[in-house]
Amino acid sequence: MKPEVILHSFGYLTQAAGVTIAVSLAGIVIGFVIGALVCASRVSRRAWLARLGGAYVSVFRGVPLLVQLLFIYYFLAEFGLDVPAIVAAVGGLALSSAAYQAEILRGALNAVPRGQAEAAVALGFAGSDIWRRVLLPQALRISIPPLINEFILLLKASSLVSVVGIAELTRVSMNIASLTYRPLEAYVGGGLFYLAINLALAGFGALAERRLAADGAR
Amino acid sequence: MMHSDKITVTRREALKTGLAAGALIGGTRLALADDTLAEIKKRGELMTATEMQFPPFDISDNGVYKGLDRDLVDAVAKEMGVKASYLDLPWTSVLPGLEAKKFDLCIAPVTITKERMKRYAFTVPIADATAALMKRANDASIMKPEDIAGKTVGGQKGTSQVEQLKAFPAKLSKPVEVKEYVDNNQSYADLAAGRIDASVNSLPNLAYAAQQRSDTFAVVLPAFGQPTYFSWVARLDDKSLIDAINAAILKVEADGTMAKIQKTWFGQTMDLPKTVPEPSI
Question: Is 0.90 surpassed by the pTM of this model?
């Protein structure tokens, strides 16, 4: 073990970690927006909308992310649709993560006791207020731990975007391994960066949970 | 909204049909193929891709692309009056990316084989690709290639060097167990860790690896494989591009630039065929 290999490549790894964070963050945020829409359509009373949401989840959860990325970047090009690498990377992460996030949100909605909505109706809340002030805040609080879980999984899955030519953390660790012929040091370096990012994410999740819990108690 | 969407689709369909008809009538395919060279000249940029994990050909040193391929393609692009750009892709994505027209030229060294010649257009050779073996420096049981009889050898899956390794034991007394890896670096790592007894790769790659970690690795000489060569590849119908690249490579060889580049990355110079050789494998 030669720790100086990690030190020598520290700047390179930091830069790659930045790419990993940026791509993942964009994927998470866009994925959350799409996921919320998909969840809304899945719980819709309109049968065709619910089926459409169900189909989305089946496809994007059922096809491996790697295949989705290759499809967006290489297969669409066959039809003259030249998707830039960064768009393919963020798009692939977002579309795939949206399926998981939609199910997390749906599960959280289902976990809010039925009596809550009934009580709100009895108290004379308007329909939109029931959603905004009663159901969504509770569902959001329930969904935080599994959402953070999904964010961490997505961050680690983002190593796959290297297939479209994005130099993210895992890819750069491999580059360093091949350059120095010291794979152990290179991957330990990359792994430490992942750990640091995910610890920060988990910390953020704990903070959000505390905040929301305090809000609920008020 | 739905209505206008439908019209767009119809238009696109019409365009597609028109293009297909045009291709049938006027041989659009040929015209499109010739466009690659014209387009490179127009944009002033030769777009290339490789996997930057193949020292001494392709290295990403703290994010800076280096290696024999880099120096050579820079010289070639200069001859063509354009600048080169480089994309780092995993090897499994390089040839699909070429076919999807994500770039113009694959500058990852590709071994010329009969099978590959049917699918891709090869440039004249840029380096020797003859398969050889590397062992642990302290392993006295392997002194010549034939000594791997009954031992375990690793290499990168899908490479012609591994295919040559698989054909080699036919001449040996005992079979050789072949372990295939996603890339050569894992094979080297397992060699260092003692899980395998030797790694197969092209002689230039191994010579560089052994030089970088001479305490751990040593090359087993002579190379055991059939004489083969590395070339760059373009799409099969990009004839004019290949001709332009070939002319530039030969020019760079003639004026001594190639020898200088070889000296930098191989520590020695070597002569290469001036035409695309008939593949021996």
Answer: no
